[in-house]
Amino acid sequence: MVKRSSLEFDESLFDGDSKPRRSKKRKDDVPREPSPRLGRVDNVLAVAIVLAIVILAILGLTYTRENWFAVVLLGLMFLTSELFALPMRPAGRLSIALLPLVMAMMISGPLGTAVVAAFGLPIFFLEREPQGWRRVTFNTAQLVFAAGAAGLVFKYTGGGILDASLNNGGKLVLPWILATLVFFVFNTLLVMPMLAPKGEKVFRFWQRRLLGKLPGYVLYSGIGFLAAIVYIRLEFPAVVLLFAPILAIRVVYTRYATMRDVCDDTTLAIMEGVEGGSMFMEGHSLGVADIAVDIADEMEFADEDIHFLRQAALLHDIGKLALDPSVVDKPGPLTPEEYEEIKQHPLIGARIVSKEPSFAVVAPTVRHHHEMTDGSGYPDGLSGETIPLGARILAIADAFDAMQRPVSYREPLNKHEAASEVVRAKGIQFDPEVVDAFVKVAIRRGLWTGALKDKLRMPTKVQQPQLTVSSDQPTLADAVPEAGETAVARPSGMTPADGISYDDVRGEIEKDMREWKRTESGTRRRAREPKRKAGSRKKKSEEDKG
């Protein structure tokens, strides 16, 4: 359960799941407007088509001479490179297609470079789903435009066809650098609106997810430069000697990425089978993994770290398999002894995953996903930054998903309420930095749009209320019946003091207070006088004897 602080939220800013939904569409329903993302995709598609047509027109008007044999050969290389492209998160692909494009710039010309890019059309057609013709058209148009623009920049900044004697090789370095940058900028800027998640600013997505790809573009472009030099000297054998090893490395890495995805899918299938029983909330691990991956992505984790965090999220509750099912499935609050047993599942889960070397790296995250920022968590009572960052992310994802699951002893929360509970526990149960990332993810997903009503202030000393006496309060005698009078009957359960105000007993209380003060003052006076009185009696008896 999430610890709560004293923060108050403006619930009027919540929207989404709180609104009722219709299960069936009626004939008179107003058609829903297209989503902003769909409109953005269509707009970018139209821009890409127009740019491709414009660049092809310019290249056609400035066409001089092309090496079409080399264009076909390099086009087949381009097709092969796209065949072994790596998928990107959250969408898109990464290939070594820049290598044959750079070779085409130096061996053929700008028009040949654009034509080489069009050779990827069959691969785009095979991977057209689910966007269909939009995806095929966009991928072809944006690559043709980026390649043609890079070829033009290369040609008109001093570049040209690479000489067989390599006498002009040094003059081509600066145009090659500029052409590489132009291709990177146009290629990534055009795909940026298509890949950016809903709710995230496209430029921020470019800066966060695509700008880091620039070194890879430069590397493949540099290899393309060297390949063009070798091609000029050896022609076709050079392509086989240089491109084949690079393609083999790419294939191996692609197979590794595929096996990693298979590992993820296998882990997911195992947990779905386990959660399908009675010991877990069905779908909980997948829900935790989903939100944890988005938080890690928001915090700019590397792809490899996101992969391991997903593994930890899927396996975080596997330790419950070793616990007593009657305790795990108990339909009510746990006793202290049962709670102590439940607290062992992170330790057991960490031991289970650490036995497999490929999963050992996620063991600390599994072990500490119930630690709390204030140090009151378990199993080791870690606090603050001593808790592994992956475990801090997993703690939020676990709590957020669990609060939306129905259990026998409480009602499930909706997404807005669960997100609000997470924010309320910021700095108490959850790491503030991770909560900030979670809020951005929740807002982007439309899960939470809350805001604080007031700023959080430090607690102040509370002034105790002072008792005041009003002058018109009556005495007790007014409420006590005279002799011979009959007491008013009271309903069952009432005491004699029920219905009597302070005004009714004021006089009697004041009388009692005066009597008490008089008695108290007399007692204190007598306590001070015994010795003096004893001395006076002794002196008086001596005088009588005299």
Q: What is the topology, as strand order, of the major beta sheet?
A: 1-2
Which band does the percent of strand residues land in? under 5%
State the share of residues found in helices, binned by percent.
55-70%
Euclidean distance between termini CA atoms: 94 Å
Assign the structural class, choosing from mainly alpha, mainly beta, alpha/beta, alpha+beta, or little secondary structure.
mainly alpha
Number of strands: 2
Give the low-pLDDT segments.
Answer: 4-36, 452-470, 490-497
Largest sheet: 2 strands, antiparallel
Care to describe what's here?
- With 546 residues, this protein is an all-alpha fold.
- It contains 21 helices and 2 strands.
- A two-stranded antiparallel ribbon has the order 1-2.
- Strand 1 and strand 2 form a beta hairpin.
- Helix 1 crosses helix 6 (133-156), helix 1 (36-61) runs antiparallel to helix 7 (173-195) and helix 11 packs antiparallel against helix 12.
- 31% of the residues are buried.
